Amino acid sequence: QVQLVQSGSEVEKPGASVKVSCKASGYTLTNYGVNWVRQAPGQGLEWMGWISPYNDNTNSAQKFQGRVTMTKDTSTNTAYMELRSLRSDDTAVYYCARGKQLFDEFDIWGQGTLVTVSS
Amino acid sequence: EIVLTQSPGTLSLSPGERATLSCRASESVSSSYLVWYQQKPGQAPRLLIYGASSRATGIPDRFIGSGSGTDFTLTISRLEPEDFAVYYCQQFGRTFGQGTKLEIK
Questions:
Q1: What's the CA gap between A92 and A110, in Å, rounded?
Q2: Residue A102 pLDDT class (50, 70, 90 cuts)
């Protein structure tokens, strides 16, 4: 069964970092890229970035450049997204989603990880 | 950056009716990269339509995507109770529209 399973909820203080994991099963991360999308409470979807299946190349939205790092571990078939210098407006559900190439549709989504930033 | 504007913001209809959702781009978008998702409360989005008009695996044929250039439409030909949700369009695997909430009248 093709699926993405994400790590559990996190509570962080302003200024801290958070790292969310996304484990793929039923296929390998070397064949499909991984996107990261977030959704603030009651708001819409916001694309954060994508990591290539073929190497460690990434492409991120300008708003997150310098603050987000996307990586993957092919030995465990797990992708990671780290967001640094957290602010209260980073409170959101973070999703990983499969997309073969950079501009492709997202056909499989993780269940989401709630990250709460609060002092 | 291309902006996608969805209308209406909220659409109130009854089961059995036809729904027409619009997605307008601030500049021309390749149809190959125009996508629609459905999201229900507490759930992750689900891929409905890719390439502007191709249904994803398992999506019923009452969901119809159309359009080109700057104007795209998602039509649900005959609403079922499970279709009431929020719908998002997306272009080039990046920008999302703000969403249309389809609610039961």
A1: 14
A2: confident
